[in-house]
Amino acid sequence: MKDIFKDQEELTYQDIQNFLALHGQKGAKTLSLLGQLSDFRQAINDPVGQILIKDLMTKMEALLPNIVLMKASDVEKAEYRAYLNLFMDWINKINKYRNLKTKIKQGDKK
Predict the structure, then answer these.
(1) What is the pLDDT of residue 49?
(2) What is the C-alpha to C-alpha distance for residues 59 and 89, in angstroms, rounded to an integer?
(3) Residue partners of 76: CB distance under 8 A and separation at least 6
């Protein structure tokens, strides 16, 4: 798997300074959240993280045919929902990271 954040522009020290000057304490909280999500980014781009994502996707793919054909047991449905919820949580974290990074990069000009 490739680094899904590879094409993202890196934040500069000046970007961060400008953002903090504009947003003060709220900006500091945003940067703190970005730091937490940065740990997530490193985890999913690490070889072990990529193995875990591939494993999750493989498990979902194995359950999907019975789900689609409405032949899945209650246990299989519960497993699929759990995997899907975890996958969606990861997607939301990725999107939140990208959005926060963009917000900081643009200085929240909205």
Answers:
(1) 76
(2) 16
(3) 63, 66, 67
Give the CA distances from residue 96 to residues 33, 55, 90, in Å, rounded to whole numbers and listed in that order.
9, 23, 10
The letter for the amino acid at 109 is: K
Element (H, E) at 101: helix 74-106
The model's pLDDT over 23-81, given as tens digits with 9 standing for 90+, comes to 777 777 767 777 777 777 777 777 777 788 788 888 988 998 898 889 999 999 999 99
Concatenated DSSP letters of 40-66: HHHHHHSHHHHHHHHHHHHHHHHHHHH
CB atoms under 10 Å from CB of 100, counted, come to 19
